[in-house]
Amino acid sequence: MTQLSDSVVARLRTEMQVPDLEGTRYRIVRHLARGGMGSIWLAEDTVLKRRVALKVLDLVAPADDFGARLLQEARILAGLEHRGIVPVHDAGTLADGRAFYCMKYVEGQTLAQHIAAKNIQEKLRLLERIAEPVDFAHAHGVIHRDLKPENIMIGAFGEVLVMDWGLAKVGAPGLRSAENEISTLVLLTPNPSRVTGQGTVLGTPGYMSPEQARGVTTQLDRRADIFSLGAILAFMLTGSVRGEALAVKGNVPRPLRAICEKAMAADPNARYQSAGEMTDDIECYLNGAPVLAYSEGLLERARRIYARHRTAIVLVAAYLLMRVLFILLSRR
Amino acid sequence: MTRHSVVLAAQSDNPAARSRAIEAIAVAYWRPVYKYVRMKWNIDREDAADFTQDFFTRLLEREFLDSYDSHKGRLRTFLRSCCDRLFMNQTRDSKRLKRGGGSAHFSLDLEEAERELAIAPSSESPEERFEKEWIRNLFTQGLQRLRASCECGGKMIHFELFQRYDLEDADSKPSYTQMAREHGLSVTDVTNYLAFARREFRRCVLDQLREMTATDEEFRCEAQALLGVEVG
């Protein structure tokens, strides 16, 4: 048989990745992104005439391996109906045996692109909107385990979506009641022990909590995501990964630095215990109230109170000054 | 273990199974090895051919493969480093390229390999060429499997359409309509037959890759390397 030319080999190599959609309602439009286990494709739903995103595995996987993980991801997403979590429409197996699921196609920017021209207040408001679906997932016993700027999309109309729940884990132990945990497990994962690997390091360095980096996946709880939220906040404020930049860059206000440091504490018990608690502290900062993470000095306190109540303080001071002047003038 | 792996067979104590397995490894790797040594050390074709024969003869004699541990790396990386080591040793001992002594155990089509080497991009590194040759051989063998499978299943028309459309260079590619007319088929049939052949080709290539790896983990890793290319 004649040897294949380099150009033919390159074309075959590309074509081998294109999912075989025979027998499905979808038609490939173009490739969108690559992940560790497969690719995401822009496709057209030929029945509903709308664009969707298909996540397709590269290989036909054994039932208890990546195929199950992809199905688990689809089920987790389907179970989390929230405006900040991309909805899943369909899941199944292609003609060539590869697992896939279909989700809403989100057009927009990644977090890193979006925050380029934002001020601190806008960035903090954005972080609150990122934390909201994360908090919602935690309330349903799901931890994301791979929160990072690349997995946050900002849609064309400003909607914030937390993407890529491929490493998500259900039934986070330790911080939830056992009753709720069991019901969530039954709802989302028929056989979780087969799906969740033990002792495997999954996540992204820089955004991964120390306990996750050690590979103790079975003991991870939602505080691992709190760490990642802290790292994302640090990234938004400094443009760098992880907190070391916080110490270097003096233009990050101390209370915000403290919020990042608390969220990224090495000991999970020293972190915020929920995403809601973290956003409450951010909200306090935005409103000029004292933040939980930071013990301020007397001068800082005075400065904050002045900044928060500037108008009232100026009015009262002006009134007092006028009174003093009036008294002085009337004595003459 | 239910998977058939030529790598494991090549490490076995059964001489017949080992010999067959090394033969299969030689078929898959002689081009990468030959072109790699030609490019890396700039040696002439006779020396490169002797080196290649010697390399696979040593594999047959269990010189390298017994120390291969699939948990520590990929087979192709291991074989390339064995090439480097053998070449350095031969250079050091001043008996470079003598061991083969002209006795050819393996059939090498040097003319074709040289023609391919002549048109390889000059900017390419020997390592890149090694990888490209590895993929090319994987696809060539996948294609042979596809042909055999289509012959068995009475689906040679599927194979012919695939060969005609997917294996031609872009400028000489016929249209679906043209192929439908030539084979007396409808355009829908051409589309369906091609979809079948592509699906089978993918399966054949991955089956071939599975055989050329020692473990499922190595297979997955190599499949990611094969499939993990940017799609335009």
Helix/strand layout:
The complex is a heterodimer of chains A (332) and B (232).
Chain A: H1 6-15, E1 26-34, E2 38-45, E3 50-57, H2 66-79, E4 88-93, E5 99-104, E6 108-110, H3 111-114, H4 120-139, E7 142-143, E8 152-155, E9 160-162, E10 169-170, H5 178-188, H6 192-195, H7 210-213, H8 222-238, H9 244-248, H10 254-263, H11 275-286, H12 298-308, H13 310-331
Antiparallel strand pairs in A: 1-2, 2-3, 3-5, 4-5, 6-8, 7-10, 8-9
Chain B: H1 6-10, H2 15-41, H3 45-60, H4 75-92, H5 110-118, H6 126-152, H7 156-166, H8 176-183, H9 187-211, H10 216-227
Helix pairs in contact in B: 2-3, 2-4, 2-6, 6-7, 6-9, 7-9, 8-9
Put the structure in a nutshell:
The complex is a heterodimer of chains A (about 325) and B (about 230). By secondary structure, chain A is of the alpha+beta class. In chain A, about 45% of the residues lie in helices and about 15% in strands.
